[in-house]
Write a structure and sequence with these properties.
The protein is built from 1 helix and 5 strands, in the order βββββα. It is an alpha+beta fold. A 5-stranded antiparallel beta sheet has the order 3-2-1-4-5, with helices on one face. It is globular, with a radius of gyration of 12 Å.
Length: 84
């Protein structure tokens, strides 16, 4: 299954425009993601990431609800799987 997963931006690199990227925390799993589509997002903001691209900002409460649903479905393990 391919989902957009919420994550919190930990760090933003020096790139600009299409090269803008950062480290994003997905409930303890940290991965690099493109931030090109969310130019207004900053460190500490929550974003929805789909196939390595942050596609939207969301608030912390909504991110927490999504993580709760993923835990209930036992789907959080797939975040650490490079194949998924």
């Amino acid at each position: 299954m391919c989902l957009g997963i919420p994550g919190r931006i930990l760090e933003i690199g020096d790139g600009e425009g299409v090269a803008r990227a950062g480290r994003v925390d997905f409930g303890g799993i940290v991965k690099e993601a493109s931030l090109a589509f969310v130019p207004d997002a900053g460190v500490g903001d929550y974003v929805v990431v789909h196939v390595g691209f942050a596609i939207a900002r969301l608030d912390e409460a909504e991110a927490a609800r999504v993580f709760d649903y993923l835990r209930q479905m036992d789907e959080l393990g797939e975040l650490g799987d490079e194949r998924g």
